[in-house]
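Input/output pair, single chain:
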Amino acid sequence: MVDLNKRRFLTRKSNLKLNHQLPWLTSPQTLTQDCTQCGQCLTACETKIIVKGDAGFPTVDFNLDECTFCYRCAEACPEGLFNAQEESPWDIKATIGENCLAKQNIECRSCGDFCEPMAISFKLELGKVAQPEMNLDECNGCGACVSACPSKAINVSNQLQKGI
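Output:
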């Protein structure tokens, strides 16, 4: 039998920063305190975007694909780290950085083409290609726009922790 307290002591980093939450995760602290790193959420993920992150804890990598909100990661977790499916999966939103091709006056609408909730629209501007506009109220944080972006200009993060 594995003593989880010893295991946590040996694997936890005091400055551990997880890039992304897992959908429906009760809290990032719960992940670092109670996750046994069994990998069942990684295996269960429909789009295989859950990967081992810092210190071996699971995290979402939107460069691989999008979250379909299938809830399989939560169902597979033996530790009960997740909220009920009826609750909101997370508070993360997409932001478009300055290295966006459209902001460099190069025609590109890849992110908008992949945005199912249509949170990304394009506004025509005189003397420029259409510029992307993000409607944060419509963004569900699925990350479909991230892997579609050829210049890696889109980041999905918790808007309250922006800048961390």
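DSSP finds six helices and six strands in the chain. Strands lie at 50-52, 58-60, 92-96, 120-123, 131-134, 154-158.
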